[in-house]
Amino acid sequence: MRESTFIFRNKTRWESVESGEEKSSDELADDFVELVSDLSYAKTNYPSSQLTAYLNSLSSRLYKRIFLGFKQDSNPLAIFWKKDFPLLLGHRKYVLWFATGLFLTFCVLGYICSIVEENFVIGILGNEYVNMTSQNISEGKPFGVYESESPLLMFMKILTNNLIVGLLVFASGILLGLGSVYYTFTNGIMIGAFFSLFILQGLGLDAIFVIMLHGTFELMGLILECTAGLILGLSFLFPKTLSRKRAFMTGLSESARIYIGAIPFTFMAAVIESFVTYLGRGGIQGSSPALLIPLGFVFIASWVVVIWYFYIYPNKVKKQYPYHSYLQQFYD
């Protein structure tokens, strides 16, 4: 179709959208779907035309009118955590669930290997660490490793290490996602082997309670970083209806947002591990009821936050913002 004919057929509708006249939400949604369709057609057939730029700008304005629903002076951080980040996770939930399943599978594999091969744990964690843990268990403080250093020094070491590991998991996704899978594999195997040290000594429940005081946020951060890396790699492998370049740039934007979203949880995990977890060094049996109550609150609260914010809330946000409106933000 000639460009002049395309303009003639749709000009009235575009002018109606541009005028900003009052319409119902259903009418606005219909306008947006049609406008995105027009934009896709224009990009395909008139890529260098001013019409394409016009439709892109018009689509962006209509998108913000319908879906963003916030004032220009709104707090961008609040918008990110309340809408943008969970919306992204909602539209990428299958990748998130895959990364979760992948990580848990590697953890179980690490545990199984520790049972089958006697020296597997030593090979993964090192002889010195295994001997130290065994000694702590015999002394009645199985999780004494968390009080081996000053809290502040431990916090700096843990945070630095976890940020570096997270960056590797995310950035290696550029290798078609295989790098993220590899680093998730190595971390999952190590965590499975670590838990086996306590489970084989009859301290499984104690390990889950104490280690997961900080582990819920720390491991969720790792899963998010794996998700980000997979999105980065898959966006190039499977561009769908977009050009490969456009798909990769969209994937890069998405994955970077998810990685950024993981950082605060990595930070919180380091705080809890350094200043809270060591309080449970004696395990459940070795801690007083007065201590178990606040530790139990931290344990339950961290699980509630992770399950609700990452796996339940994103689906609710997703229903409010359809895929077309979500994708439009990457075309601005």
Describe the structure.
The protein is mainly alpha-helical and 332 residues long. It is built from 13 helices and no strands. The protein has helices at residues 3-19, 25-45, 50-68, 76-91, 93-116, 120-125, 127-138, 151-171, 178-199, 204-237, 244-275, 289-320, 323-328. Helix 1 (3-19) packs antiparallel against helix 2, helix 2 (25-45) runs antiparallel to helix 3 (50-68) and helix 5 (93-116) crosses helix 10 (204-237). It is elongated, with a radius of gyration of 25 Å. The protein starts with a helix and ends with a helix.
Shape: elongated
The domain tally reads 2
What's the Cα radius of gyration?
25 Å
H/E element order: HHHHHHHHHHHHH
Number of helices: 13
Mean pLDDT: 88
Helix content: over 70%
Portion in beta strands: under 5%
* Number of extended strands: 0
Largest sheet entry = none
Poorly predicted runs are none
Briefly note the structural class of the backbone: mainly alpha
Report how far the terminal alpha carbons are from each other. Answer: 26 Å
